[in-house]
Specification:
single chain; about 55 residues; mainly alpha; flat
Length: about 55
Amino acid sequence: MLPVDAERIANEQLSEIEASRAPDASAWCRWAVAEYVAPAPEPVAAGADVLGP
């Protein structure tokens, strides 16, 4: 369980350093925070055929 303000703190820290990072690095960092806070379901658990035909 995350602390209540973990997402806010992470986003504030990202905002402070975005000026010194490449846009793609900042986008990846923001994605990583969002994935940590609300992870996407695992493909197998969601019933996806991960191996394909």
